[in-house]
Amino acid sequence: MAGWSRWWLLVLFSLVTSSGFANTTVVMNKAFAELTEERDYNYQLLKRALAITADDYTEVALTRYPLPMTQTRLIHELTSGKKVQVGVLASGYWQQPGVIAIPVPVRRGLLGWRLLVTHEQTLQRLPDLAENTEALSSLTTGFGADWVELPLMRDTFAHVETVEQTSDLYQQLLDGNFDVFSRSVIELWLELENLGSSADKLAVVPGVVLRYPFADFFYVPGDQPELAKRIELGLQRLYANGDYEALFMSFYGAVIARAELNNRRIIELKNIPLAPVNEIAEQWWYRP
């Protein structure tokens, strides 16, 4: 605890101000306590975006808040801008008062590429969704009670069982409480590995992938528009010189290959007002 206090005092000492962007240190959130800087894609991307714009603005030190935050807490901290100046959140917060969203999908919209998971026994009776995509509407599913895509799932499936935790989704699927549920290609494989032997009873539905315009973005405090401009400029430069794509593939190329998206029929789900996607250039969205 003493180490954390010293860290926070140093950060407070290095933060210069309140409006505009005059900080010599930028603090961002981290998703998991055990996530190292080397394995933190969001951190690595932001670090590069700030570095490539240093001549236009000033050099800054990027660090991460030492403890993970809930989305509600992160929005609160971003609004004040005192403890965290950059956060990564899904597009459902795009129009949140007090924050500015940078209109560049951090992970190229991979959160919207969703594979269907089912119980191995259920798989035998599922319709061939690759041949009959409309059969999706006859299936039941599970979804997070406070996840912003919930209305879309209710519009897509016959019934949606809501849960509080992701782990509950897997347990209810194992118990046979619904037919399938969707997870992004980023999330799925690690979650299955964490299930241990229980994962042997589950299967990924072959031949199809759901896709809808859903992504996560960098957000900054509403009184720091210059920081928002700087991050967007940095991301644009990284895209232009190829570093954005190279970093993206170094982190996610393996899971994309494992998902075999090129061999799956894409079922586009479009009735979802999650973000003003017309403001986001097509180049930023991942396509197989």
UniProtKB/TrEMBL annotation:
Q: What is this protein called?
A: Amino acid ABC transporter substrate-binding protein, PAAT family
SUPFAM superfamilies named among the record's database cross-references: Periplasmic binding protein-like II
Q: Does the entry feature the keyword Signal, yes or no?
A: yes
Q: Where is the signal peptide?
A: 1-22
Is the keyword Signal in the record?
Answer: yes
Q: Which UniProt keywords apply?
A: Signal
Q: What is the lineage of its organism?
A: Bacteria, Pseudomonadati, Pseudomonadota, Gammaproteobacteria, Alteromonadales
Q: Which domain of life is it from?
A: Bacteria
